[in-house]
Amino acid sequence: LSGGLGAGFFFLPQRQANDIEGQFTPLGGPAKSERRFAREHFPTRDSERFSGQRLLTEGAFASLIAVSASGDNILTAGAFAELLRLDRAVQSLAVPGGDPGAQLSYPDLCVRNNGSCSSPNPLLAAVQGEPARLETLLPQLTYPVFQSSLFMGTFLGGVQLARGAGASRVQAAKALRLVYYLREDEAADRERSLLWLENFLKGIPAELEMAYFTSISRQEEFEGNIKKVIPLFSITYFITITFSITSCLRFDCVRNKVWVAAFGVLSSGLAVLSSFGLLLFCGVPFVVTVANAPFLILGVGVDDMFIMISSWQQTNPKNKVEKRMAETYAEAAVSITITTLTDVLAFYIGIMTSFQS
User: Fold this and answer.
1) In 10 A of CB 66, how many CB atoms?
2) CA dist 355 to 16, 29, 61, 288, 351, Å?
3) Which of 196, 236, 345, 347 has the most beta carbons within 10 angstroms of its beta carbon?
4) CA 121/CA 177 separation, integer angstroms
């Protein structure tokens, strides 16, 4: 029976649900209904006229922060030549497209304004691929608003303003931020944008020493921590199982309970196999926080096993096995029933909360 139900683990990859917002925010939270209301009245059009200020979520993006090698000023022709090289490297990253053999790069997936890709930084767009243009641009560069409409607070860092009459003119800046937004209008756009961001995380950090962040970085780090923790759980399983079996070992072959302990641990393992497999067959999502459940089940099972062995050892060895078993269950059944009921109640309280995780 456990082997048959355990076949449900075949569905584990497609049942995993580790979305941070979906799992760790309340299902009926007012913020979600308010966001739906705002989306109905202030919709965004990533493929027509994109505006980062109208986004009601973080959006799908990759962000880079560049700092001058000297740490003084990044608004130089040499620094902008490097920034343009970096921009070309990012935009050339490609992922498989819908057609066989097709490749989609950033210009195919980017959000658009008036038919062209939204620029990752207004200054990069202003120099038009020629770093020498920066010298003529700097006398006109004002902060925090540039060209009467562009807010530069999110694109320049460590800004030094010129003294005197032109107090809003930028003299130097220590850091510059590039933001690459991707389309999310359709499900296909979201899927391809996600692939591009995953490719970005694999490709760009290996090539360049940059401070980077994407809209999926938090999720990637969350899942990365999971992969580091699960092997530690395996060690705890091994220690618990070893302790459970060896603590029941006796040199007297008659009083030795090592096989009782071994089968007690085995029954907990079969319980994990059966219960998880059945739930996966039923289509229940697998949340990563449930990965510690086998350890809890093992703890409950081993606890009940120790109660039964303790009750058995307190009986009179001269009595018949039937009578000793009756006395053992009479003593142990109440404790096991109460602990089982409290565990079931605790788990059902967890199920009833509005947090899926």
Assistant:
1) 20
2) 16, 10, 27, 13, 8
3) 196
4) 7
175 and 287: one domain? no
Rounded Cα distance between 133 and 151, Å, is 21
Helix 258-281 to helix 217-246 angle (10° resolution) is 150
| 40 domain residue, yes or no | no
The residue segments making up the domain with residue 160 are 59-214
Q: Which amino acid is at 354?
A: S
d(C-alpha 335, C-alpha 311), whole Å: 11
- pTM of this structure: 0.74
Same domain, 210 and 226: no
Place of tokens 């994990």: 272
What does the pLDDT look like over 104-161, one tens digit per residue? Answer: 888 888 888 877 888 898 888 888 888 888 888 888 888 888 887 888 888 998 888 8
- Would you state the pLDDT for residue 277? 95
Kindly state whether residues 197 and 239 are assigned to the same domain.
no
Residue 270 pLDDT: 93
